[in-house]
Structures are given as structure tokens and as C-alpha cells.
Amino acid sequence: MRPMPWKATLAALTLSVSLPALAEPGPAERLEADLRALFASEGRLEIGEVSAALLRDRVTARELHFVGPEGQQLWLDRYVVSGDYDSPDEVRLEGIRLETPGRERTQLSAATLRLDDPTRAVLPLHEESWPAGLRIAGLEIEALAAEFAGQDLGEGFGEGDGRVSVERLQATGLSREAIDSLELNGVEGQAEGEGEFGSGTVSLAFARVEGLRGLEGPEEERKLDRLELRDLAIDADRLVASLAGLEVDGDLQDGEGGMRLEALELDLARMIALAPEEERTRLRMASNVLTGGSGTLRLDAVSTGRWETEGDATRLLGELDVTAEEAFGWVLEADLPVRLPEGAAPAAFLAEMQSLEGVTLLGGRVDATLSDLGLFGRLPVVMAASQGISEAVFLEQARTQAQGFGMMLGPEVEAILTGLVAMMAGEARELAVQLTLPADSELEALSADPLALPERLEMQVESR
């Protein structure tokens, strides 16, 4: 037998390698086919080039342009799939631009969008709802920007035009039902609306949410484990405010939750200047009482709550501390043993509680302390001037009224009102109220008849 010539051998080897490729499309062909199939029923798609890398599992489609039936357009500079095409390690989109014409005009752009471990290589970017079965381990978007007209700008701003930009958006554990975490950095927005706040700007340095669940259900049934905001600023026609920080812990599975509000500042002076002229005198008077003439009201608040199980009872403990700088302080502490409905787990019941039905109070105590940081000392001056009387006469009338209410509602109410008058007169700096609650009482029945509470609980009032 004559040996096969080398050229014939090379041809046979080439054929043996090529035949499987001809039998089964490669990643480049599959990507192009999947992209075209995705948009086939929605409009026209143009693709400049699709190629596969020689040395690594990566396929790239370049210069994509989609035109929808109503004139909407989507441009992508590059669509890159890395790893196994059926189970990609990463899908990366670069140079994203989206335009929707018409009255509700929208323009959206992003420098890059990266998806980690998506369950499919081609994603329905033109669909508004999240497809069933699609899961993404991680997502990152850089240089996101949007402009829109004739749309709802959110509560307070109404319908109008707006712009928003985000330096970076990151998320993990995305599915149709939940998001494990979502983080935003460098958010800036501008709205021109006709709502309660009018037009204005918004900026937010950082925001993060964790454990967002129930996305498929009604909005009121959604759950959030944690929320954090930093450096929020709003400068609108009728609201000028800033917030240094907000932290909310809504996950009660570990037995505790809470909220921290840091440096919420309301620029009352600027808001009054922007208010209608006929309202400014009244608003300026209220501002002077609250702020002592500074025109800026600052609020700080810390709230913590936890639960402990003791036999068949659950002990609810909570603390609230609110400070309005140069105005007042408010501290509330509660220690309430309760019996929950039979079979209810404390964490789940407290997280989903919509009513007090079935909750039995087993006694307990609530302590509240109101402190004067300047507000009560300023009240007599304003109140007396508004009535055309002296401060001494106003305070005497207030004491008489406190005694009158005491005759109708009881000595405890009189003690509270007399304590408030003492704070206005500078005779006391704090008013403390201690409540001892009745045992074996249905909480829903107690809350439904608050006027009967003084007869069913013990109250001690102290001015100091």
C-alpha cells in the first residue's frame, strides 16, 4: 500500500476537525442566533460582527442596533459572553444607549454592565418584567445615566421631566423574587415637577439594601432586612433638607432590630423664603420657636427593639431617643411581657404583624421623659404676644387650664399639664412619666379605647 501523501493527510485531519463544527454551531453562531431570535418579534436588529476568541472561552458581538415598532432604539458597542456558553461565568455589555420617543420620552446610557454567573447567555434587555427562572449571582453597572420626560417622578414631585445619574450600581443574588443586596454610589438627580415639592435636585452619596424579598407580591408585603443611606441632600422649591445617615435593621430573626437617624437638617429659613408671601409670617414665628432663630432644625434619633422568650411568654423591650437640637429631647423605654397567638413564632409574627389581635399583655412598664432644650422657654413669649397679654398672665392662664383638665380627666393628666407649664416657666427641665400596665389585657382592646387607659394603669408623673 502506498503511503498517503502529506497533503492528503492534512486535508483528512482538517476535515475530521471541521465536521463536528459543521454539525453543531459554535458559540459565535449561537450568540448571533439567540440575539436575533430574542428581538425577532419586537423589531429589527442589526449586528456588525460576531467573533469567538481563539485562546479563551469568549464570544463577542459588536455594534448592535435594535429598532422597535414604536421607534424605540437600543445600541450596544459590545456584548461579550465569557466561559461556557450554556452556563456563562460573565456577560458584559459595553456602550449601552437606549432611547424611547414620544410624550414619555426616555434616554438611558451606561458605560458597562457586568453580570456574574447568569443562568443564560442572552438576556431580554428590552423586556420590562424579570423573566421567570433567570438568576444572576452579581451585577455591576458603571456610569449609569437617564433622562425622562412626562413621567411620574416619585412621591412629592409628581409628573414632569427629570435626570438621574449613578456612578456605580452593584447587586448580588438577583432573581424574580428577591435581591440579596443592592448598593448605589454617587447618585445625583434633578426633577422639574408639579407635585408637593415642586422642582429641585437630589444627591445621595451611598445607599445599600439587604435581604429584599417578596418582589413578585404586593408592595406592602415586601420585606427588607437592612437599609443604609449616607449623605442625602434635597434642594427643592418647597423642601430643603439634608441627612447625614440612616440605618434600619428590619431583620428580627436574631431577636433584635432598630433604626438610627443621624443629623436630619431642615433648612426652615430657606423653605420660608420660598413659601407664598402670605404664609411667611406664620411660618417664621413657628421656625423661631423651634430653632431659636437659627432657621435650621436638626433631628437625631435612635430606636432599638428586641424580644426574648420566657416560657410561653415573649418579652418585648424597646428604646427610643429623639433629639431636636435647641428644642427638645424625648426618651421612651418599654418592657412588655406579652403572650402571642398560639403557634406564632416571635420573629415572624413581629415582622409581619398588622394588628394586635390575639396579643395578650401580661403587665409591663413604659417610661417616658421629655426634656427642654430651649423650646419650652420660648413658647410663653410667642404665645403671649399672639394673644396680646404678658408672659405672666399667659402662664397663670395655662396653670388654671391644667387644673380644669385635671378635674375632668383625673389627677394624672393634671400632673402632666402642670409639668409642661412648669417647663415653660423655667421651673423644671424634664417631665418624666412612668406607666405600669395591667396584666392579662388584650392589647387590641386597650388601643381601641385610649380614654379608658388612665383607669386601667398606674401612672406616676414627676417634674424635675
Automatic annotation (TrEMBL):
The UniProt keyword set, sorted, is: Signal
Q: Where in the sequence is the signal peptide annotated? A: 1-23
Decide whether keyword Signal is in the record.
yes
- Where does the source fall among the domains of life? Bacteria
What's the protein name?
A: AsmA protein
Q: What is the originating organism of this protein?
A: Halomonas ventosae
